[in-house]
Amino acid sequence: MQNPAAAGEAGAINVYVCEETGAKTWTREVDGGVTPFMIRCRAAGCDCGGRAGATSAMYPREIPDNVIGRWEWYRPDSRVEALTHATKAIDDVLAVIDRKVGAAERQSKILATVDHWAKGGLYMRQSAEPWTPGGGQITKVPKVPGKRAKS
Ligand SMILES: [Zn+2]
User: How far is the CA of 149 from the centre of ligand 1 (A)?
Assistant: First the structure.
């Protein structure tokens, strides 16, 4: 189907491609706004183990019907919610990259994230329920053979 909205508008669907394996992390915007060019890979069962970067495919016009999304972009309602999310997100970044990179690169990754938020960029979270491009919420996700179902 056609992407339900344009980049920066609520409803827009985007995909981030893992730099190591090409696995896809589908996201959608709950609120309209700016999303980053790169995220940490969150593709379910990806062989990178969530350690690789994933780059934006810049909001493809056509979205396959069989996409199952598990992530979304939103604008926190309050300063407290934003700070709580930020703390968790930075802990998450540190947990993954701590042993892999030096202090300078670690700091630059955190600063890039904070800079995105400081400029009013959207926050990323796991969706309460997986979703489809048609907008439906689905409660049962088919398992991919040989892959871990965890995202
Ligand atoms: Zn990956």
Answer: 14
